[in-house]
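Per your request, structure below.
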C-alpha cells in the first residue's frame, strides 16, 4: 500500500488504525496490529492508571513499532493517565469526548502526536484550531459512544475533509477492504477500525462477546442512551430494558441508575450476554470469523487492493 499522510505522520506501513476500545483493546491487540503494519491503540478508558502503565510496558516489550493510547477525556483520573503516557514515552494519543485544547499542547510539547475524535465538521475545525495532528471522523455506524447528530460516515467524511486541512481518518462502518476503499474515495487519508478487531484472537473481549458479534445480523445494533452519552449496542435483555425505560420517558437520573457501574465490563469483558452492555458497530453484520489481528489486517489490505483494481477496470 502506497505511502500517504497517515503512514508518514505515524511512521507506519498502512493507514489503518485499530480503535482503542474499552475492555477489548489491551497490549496484546495493540502490539499485534502495530507489528502487522498498522497503528495499534491501547484503550485506557477501562483501565486504572497502574493497569495502563502495565499495558504500556508489556506492549513495549513485544513491539518496536509505533503504538498509541486512546484516552476518553471524561475519564476521572485523566491527569494520572497523561502523566504515565508522557513518562513512558508513548508517541501517539487519541483523545475523545472532551475539549482538545485541554491536553493537546501539553502532549505535543512532549513529542506526542495527537489525534482527536469528532462526529461533526464544527468540532473538527475546533480540534484543528487546538493544534491536533489528525482527526478521526466517526460516523453514526460506529460502535461504542457516538455522536448525537447521527451523521453517517458517508456524509461526515467529505464534510470534515472540506472543513480542515489536517489528515482525516474515517471511522464507523469500516471493517473490510472495500469499505476502506470507499472511505478513501470520500477523501479520508486513513481509517480507524474497531469492531472487526473485537473479533480477533488478541482482543481482550470475552469469547461469549466475540461469538455474539460474529453471529449478529443486520439490524441487531441500535444507538441508545442519547440522553446520557449516545452508545451503539447489540440488542439483548439489557438493551430491551433500556429501550422500555426510554419509551416510558425515563429521566436522566433513572437511566443513570439503570446503567449502574461496570455494565460494559460485565458484558464485553466478563461475558454476560443478557445483562451486560455490548458495544459494537453496524459492521458486525459482516463479521463471521474470529482471526488473528495480522490475518485481519492482511485480509483488509488484500481486499482493498483488489477492489481498487476492479474499480480501475470499470467502464461507464
Amino acid at each position: 500500500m502506497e505511502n500517504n499522510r497517515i503512514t508518514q505522520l505515524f511512521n507506519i506501513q498502512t493507514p489503518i488504525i485499530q480503535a482503542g476500545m474499552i475492555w477489548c483493546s489491551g497490549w496484546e491487540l495493540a502490539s499485534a496490529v502495530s507489528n502487522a503494519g498498522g497503528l495499534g491503540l491501547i484503550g485506557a478508558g477501562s483501565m486504572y492508571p497502574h493497569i495502563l502503565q502495565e499495558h504500556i510496558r508489556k506492549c513495549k516489550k513485544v513491539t518496536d513499532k509505533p503504538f498509541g493510547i486512546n484516552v476518553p477525556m471524561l475519564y476521572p483520573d485523566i491527569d494520572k493517565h497523561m502523566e504515565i503516557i508522557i513518562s513512558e514515552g508513548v508517541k501517539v494519543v487519541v483523545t475523545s469526548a472532551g475539549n482538545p485544547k485541554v491536553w493537546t499542547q501539553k502532549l505535543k510539547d512532549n513529542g506526542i502526536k495527537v489525534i482527536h475524535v469528532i462526529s461533526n465538521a464544527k468540532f473538527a475545525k475546533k480540534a484543528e484550531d487546538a493544534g491536533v495532528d489528525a482527526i478521526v471522523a466517526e460516523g453514526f455506524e460506529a460502535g461504542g459512544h457516538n455522536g448525537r447528530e447521527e451523521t453517517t460516515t458517508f456524509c461526515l467524511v467529505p464534510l470534515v475533509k472540506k472543513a480542515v486541512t489536517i489528515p482525516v481518518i474515517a471511522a464507523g462502518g469500516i471493517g473490510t477492504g472495500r469499505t476502506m476503499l470507499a472511505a478513501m474515495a470520500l477523501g479520508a487519508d486513513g481509517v480507524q477500525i474497531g469492531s472487526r478487531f473485537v473479533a480477533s484472537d488478541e482482543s481482550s473481549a470475552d469469547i461469549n462477546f466475540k461469538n455474539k458479534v460474529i453471529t449478529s445480523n443486520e439490524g441487531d445494533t441500535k444507538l441508545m442512551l442519547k440522553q446520557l452519552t449516545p452508545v451503539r449496542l447489540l440488542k439483548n435483555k439489557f438493551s430491551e430494558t433500556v429501550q422500555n425505560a426510554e419509551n416510558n420517558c425515563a429521566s436522566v437520573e433513572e437511566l443513570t441508575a439503570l446503567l449502574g457501574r461496570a455494565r460494559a465490563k460485565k458484558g464485553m469483558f466478563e461475558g454476560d450476554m443478557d445483562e451486560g452492555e455490548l458495544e459494537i458497530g453496524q459492521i458486525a453484520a459482516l463479521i463471521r470469523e474470529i482471526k488473528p489481528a495480522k490475518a485481519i489486517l492482511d485480509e483488509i489490505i488484500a481486499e482493498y487492493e483488489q477492489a481498487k483494481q476492479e474499480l480501475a477496470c470499470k467502464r461507464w
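The chain has a mean pLDDT of 95.

Regards,
D.
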